[in-house]
Amino acid sequence: MEQEQDHPNINRNIHPPILALICIVIAHWFGWFVRVPFGAPDFLQNAGFGLIVIGFFLAVAAFMEFRKAHTTLDPHGSVKTLVTDGVYRISRNPIYLGYLLMVIGFPLNAGLYSGVLVAPLFVSTINRLVIEKEEAYLEKKFREAYTGYRSRVRRWL
Length: 157
Known about the structure:
Layout: H1 16-33, H2 42-68, H3 94-109, H4 114-152
Helix pairs in contact: 1-3, 1-4, 2-3, 3-4
C-alpha cells in the first residue's frame, strides 16, 4: 500500500529565492547588454531601493507568521497549519510578492528598467512551477478552510 504524500508536488530542484535571484541576474544582464538611451533618474533609482526594502520586509513579515504558526517555510515540506494572519491577510503569497518587488527594485536601483520587463517572467514561472502546486496541496489538505481563505485573499495583491 502506497502512503499518500503530505507535501506539494513541487520539483525538488525548484527554489523560489533562487528563481528570484536568477530573474534579478537576467534583468541586470539584459539591462547591461540592451541599453536604452536614458538611464533611470535618481528618484526612480531611489524608488527601486524602496521596492527592495519593502520586498525584504514583506518577506520577513511572512517568515515571522510561519514561525509563529510553527509550520515549515520550505515549499517542498509538509505544512502543519494554514497561515492567514498578518501579511497573509493582504496576499496569499507575500514572500513571492516580496521577491517580485526585489526583482523590479534591484535593477531599477542600478538605473536599469529591465526589472520591469523581467517581472512577468518571474510571475509566470513562480505561478506555474510553485504556486499552482502549493495551492492544490493546500486545498487538498485544508479543504473548506483554504477555499474560503482563497476566496477572501488575492494570490498576489
